[in-house]
Amino acid sequence: MTTRTPLMAGNWKMNLNHLEAIAHVQKLAFALADKDYEAVEVAVLPPFTDLRSVQTLVDGDKLKIKYGAQDISAQDSGAYTGEISGAMLAKLKCTFVAVGHSERRQYHNETDELVNAKVKAAYKHGLTPILCVGEELDVREAGNHVSHTLAQVEGGLKDLPAEQAESVVIAYEPVWAIGTGKVCGAEDAQEVCAGIRAKIAELYTQELADGVRIQYGGSVKSGNVAEIMAQPDIDGALVGGASLDADEFVKIVRFRDQ
Ligand SMILES: O=C[C@H](O)COP(=O)(O)O
């Protein structure tokens, strides 16, 4: 049986300036240092303006916490005002980059085609994309949540070679559960995550799909993380609001203790 190391990632969204970021990561590192958390990968996704400060801290103190960006340009360089390239993120030694978060899809009209180009840009620069997918409330109510989400997975991975797809992280985030306090039931989330794994097996191989990590995101807290992580096809969490509270995020990382 394939063992997948859980990935607990905090997506700070547009919160915490670079000074607050340093204090926050120091707090996380201190709180996590007193107990072995080797079996869980921990990452933070700060705003772009914090990344250099986080890199300096992580490098300087040799922290095990990984970090990444919340978005990436599909372009390599040039006249794209406001965009940040994969090369820039790689230079800051980012490990991860979130791609296609629902807030990017909703507020910046990101399509599956653009998301796919961003996934490819991430790999081009040695970054691991966290491909975010998930349905809106009306889609869930119409019973089309699985097909909708699988279409986003297929679109995001289009023409991606197996040697890249094998390391992709998929984050299933039902849009109606993001920041609302409404958690998708663990079994409902499992249903979709199992579907995602089956779709990846169909696109590639079962062996490849068995190694891909699938996160759940949407109002994850210390109080519900254990039940979510107990699902066989859920390998981590993409945590928004609760990741801004260092003590709460540490509890989420230590989901096995909850
Ligand atoms: O990327 C994280 C998700 O959007 C979840 O956010 P949330 O934990 O605040 O619901």
From TrEMBL:
Chief site of localization: cytoplasm
Localization, UniProt: Cytoplasm
Residues holding substrate: N11, W12, K13, G179, S219, G240, G241
Keyword annotations of the record: Cytoplasm, Gluconeogenesis, Glycolysis, Isomerase
GO biological process: gluconeogenesis; glyceraldehyde-3-phosphate biosynthetic process; glycerol catabolic process; glycolytic process
Pathway: Carbohydrate biosynthesis; gluconeogenesis; Carbohydrate degradation; glycolysis; D-glyceraldehyde 3-phosphate from glycerone phosphate: step 1/1
InterPro entries with a match to the protein in the record: Aldolase_TIM, TIM_sf, TrioseP_Isoase_bac/euk, Triosephosphate_isomerase, Triosephosphate_isomerase_AS
GO terms for cellular component: cytosol
Organism superkingdom: Bacteria
Record has Membrane as a keyword: no
SUPFAM superfamilies xref list: Triosephosphate isomerase (TIM) (SSF51351)
Any single Pfam family the record assigns to this protein: TIM
PROSITE patterns tied to this protein: TIM_1, TIM_2
Gene Ontology MF terms in the entry: triose-phosphate isomerase activity
E.C. number: 5.3.1.1
Active site annotation, chain numbering: H101 (electrophile), E173 (proton acceptor)
Cytoplasm in keyword set: yes
NCBIfam families tied to this protein: tim
Quaternary assembly: Homodimer.
Family label: Belongs to the triosephosphate isomerase family.
Protein function: Involved in the gluconeogenesis. Catalyzes stereospecifically the conversion of dihydroxyacetone phosphate (DHAP) to D-glyceraldehyde-3-phosphate (G3P).
Full protein name: Triosephosphate isomerase
Organism: Streptomyces humidus
